[in-house]
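Troubleshooting log. The previous structure file for this entry was overwritten by mistake, so regenerating from the original sequence record. Sequence copied from the archived sheet and checked twice against the printout by T.R.
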Amino acid sequence: MDTALWILAVLLIVVGVAGTVLPALPGVILVLAGIVLGAWIDDFVRVSGMTVAIVAVLAVAAWLIEYAAGVLGARKAGASKEAIFGALIGTVLGIFTGLIGLLFLPLLGAVIGQYLVDRDLIRARDVGIATWLGMAAGMLAKIALSFVMIGIFIAALLIE
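Regenerated output below.
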């Protein structure tokens, strides 16, 4: 039974790591769920409740940083709601078009959204780039914090 639970914990973590890049999956939450399951399997002996609490704080921080970075990038450039919505649509469409689409369709969506509001291609480009850079910075921070969470978990498992 423990083996099946460990396989599930590892699967949750692996799918969670994929979810840090794919917006359709709640990546950080899945990583956290895998870590909590792994700690529970061992009755929180090797991975203590305090360790799980620290990892949970990092998960919340990853979510907040990702959200704040995207919003700050958009606000700094004066993005309209349409630009932000365009970036969101671009992100969703990017899921179905591979890595290049996932990287650049949010930028294109933000540019199109802002252009529909201002009819100024230069401004739309600037807003799109700023929005995209904010989203990219947030995603990189989320990925980094996810790996820190996993590192803490593995260290706790290995150091009794």
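The chain has a mean pLDDT of 90. Archived copy saved in two places this time.
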